Amino acid sequence: MFKKIFTAAALGLTVSLAAAQSWPTKPVRMIVPFPPGGGTDILARLVSAKLSETHGWNIVADNRPGVGGTLGITEAVKSAPDGYNFVFGQKDNLVIGPWLYKSLTWNPVKDLAPVAHVAYSPVLIATSADSPFKTLADVVAAAKAKPDTLTYGSPGNGTSIHLATTIFEKAADIKLVHVPYKGSNPAMLDVIAGNVQLLVSSVPSALGQINAGKLRPLAVTSATRSSSLPDVPTVQELGIEGVRQFDVSTWYGVMAPAGTPQEVINTVNKAVNQLLSDEQVRKSIQAQGAEPLAMEVGAFGDFLSKDYTAWESVVQDSGVQLD
After folding, report:
1. What's the CATH number where 63 sits?
2. Quick one: 116 and 261 in the same domain?
3. Pfam families recorded for this chain (predicted)?
4. Which of 28, 38, 86, 234 gives 20 to 30 Å between its CA and that of 257?
5. Are residues 152 and 88 in the same domain?
6. Cβ distance 69 to 290 under 8 Å?
């Protein structure tokens, strides 16, 4: 009997490995939970195109924006775990969204499978090129002089960018007026037009307008400076009273529906990690304002689980709750 069980298990493993070796036999869908042109979309398409180019896979980007990026994650959770459905998620919709939206019933640790960590990016605080604010210290001084008057635009309520700003406000003992948008691009346009005074965004989303001379970067929120903006100081190095250790970054990674064949996941993880070791690919990611960072599947899973748990208290302390 034990021989039969062993033989059946071995046969199942052989079939599974054979399926993985022949994968993919049709186009692979990469769900992008944000509109075209944003930071997540740019990185997702870069990775998808490079994987297709390097391995001959046909990976098709499928933009499914909405509900702070959680609509695309929900779509991924409901997709068939057959190795042909993936989602390019990030911190906001994977580990923060579930604590914010009462309507969400999925858990990223239980209902999704980690595939590959791709990159991380600091949050950027910027203003228009013709703004009177030359430094972040100028912003803090103005906010202290006239509380609840300075406005800042963000990609939306409850995003890591929004919450990073509330953490900064509390540390610096200031109060800004939040103007949420449906993505970074419309927020940037209003800041450039002078309708909103400050922009808080990911570096990838804002880098193009910075390079075009339309935005003035004031600070990044990571522990170290961004390689894309080496002349822009970090928040913690500015010595603002009340702000000591300050490190808030977002991150990007590939996930799959829970139950996706592990052999396929391992194949994609290996392929993505190989891409991230390529100097040209690394430069392309850095050119978008992000820092490439490869992880093995297990390490990414541990990272996801810890970050998901950590942000529960951050969201609760912020008092933000969305329907």
Report:
1. 3.40.190.150
2. yes
3. TctC (PF03401)
4. 38
5. no
6. no
Q: What is the CA radius of gyration of the chain?
A: 21
- Say if residue 69 is in the same domain as residue 107: yes
Length of the chain equals: 323
Sign of CA dihedral 133, 139, 144, 149: positive
Q: Among 238, 258, 289, identify where a domain stops.
A: 238
**What is this structure's pTM?**
0.79
Cβ neighbours around 298 below 10 Å, total: 10
Residues 6 or more apart whose CB falls under 8 angstroms from that of 66 comprise: 33, 72
**Euclidean distance between CA atoms 91 and 308, whole angstroms:** 9
Domain that holds residue 306: 27-120+250-318
Contacts of 295 by beta carbon, 8 Å cutoff, 6+ apart: 116, 117, 273, 303
Low-confidence ranges of the chain (pLDDT < 70): 1-21, 242, 244-245, 323
Strands (E), the chain: 28-32, 59-63, 85-90, 112-128, 151-154, 177-180, 198-202, 215-220, 249-257, 291-292
- 52 and 62 housed in the same domain: yes
Residue 102, C-beta contacts closer than 8 angstroms, at least 6 positions apart: 321, 322, 323
**Cα 216 from chain centre:** 22
pLDDT the model gives residue 150: 97
| Maximum C-alpha span of the chain | 80
Of 67, 119, 113, nearest in space to 87 by CA: 113
